[in-house]
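Request:
Um, any thoughts?
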Amino acid sequence: MNKSSVSASRRRNSGSPATAPVKADEEAILVLQGGGALGAYQAGVFESLAKVYREPTWVAGISIGAINAALIAGNAAAHRVARLCEFWELVSSALPTPLIGASTTANAREALNESHASQVMLFGVPGFFKPRFPPAPFQPAGTLEAISYYDTSPLAATLERLVDFDRINAGAVRLSVGAVNVRTGNFEYFDSAKQTIDARHIMASGALPPGFAPVEIDGEHYWDGGLVSNTPLQYVLDQPGKRRRVVFQVDLFAARGALPKNLGEVTEREKDIRFSSRTRLNTSNELDRQVIALAAQRLVAKLPPEWRDDPDVRALSRVRCESAIDVVHLIYRSKHYESQSKDYEFSRLSMQEHWDAGRADMAHTLHDPRWLNREHNAHGVHVFDLNSDSLSFI
């Protein structure tokens, strides 16, 4: 995708004029799931979000979501989409767009995608990772080279070139990425609001074994956060906030799906289930927590003053009740010709399709009357999943 084709694509998909309501008291938060090559969908989502609604004040991600999040938080607003384009053009540059026509069958396209994925397994991805040589079995036991198939030093160089970590640590846009401590098995978040962030933290969040080696940070080693949780949504919801929050949760694997028809579909469906973010579970838990918090507030208000010093009453009064939260849920919907290799199929054609799908889904959501006419003064948690034609709230 060269710059002229990117610009042409944006003109074709620019959509209707920006009419989404923006309130000064709203905090926009972008939450990005892991999903490898599917992450171009998130870049498209961000392009529409920044154009139609507003720039986020906080970006949180896991794995490829952490990379996209760093590219957003680590650049000035005017350059964020360009840096995302630069990254996705780089990682898809080894597999340029083939000549395919409208008559191309699903089977032919699936075969083409599988061949692209095989090339990635053999030769790696430019600016991201390359095969180890000699391979892991021939590396000295006990070294990081002996426990991973690929070398991610190209990603380190890419991040240093495309991401301004001084900007991230200055705090204009908060960045949070999740990883798993290899020794303890505990999940940990690296948060620019609480510590200094550098390229190691981003790479740790995406160090999925056994492909990639764990990343050492302050004497501990970390693997991909998706091993424990493939979304930072719960972390974001758990952090205290004073303003109304609008959380855009962008998932790359769908938890819901049809019964597989063959073994190939079994592998894809298993991966979807394993890496899906359980966004509905997280939001349902938050709905329950808000109901309990509101009920506790009402109950404490009804009690006579002499009961206010009772330890149980004091405990109830401390139950946190957040300001209103809108969760806008977007999920990438796999094409019928995409298989279990979709998350490591880095072809230029698929990247363009994923990006365009994200841009279109976000634009559709932000121009939906149910989003435009949402109640700004309503309390509780509201969940918008408008691309699947559903809406729930309390």
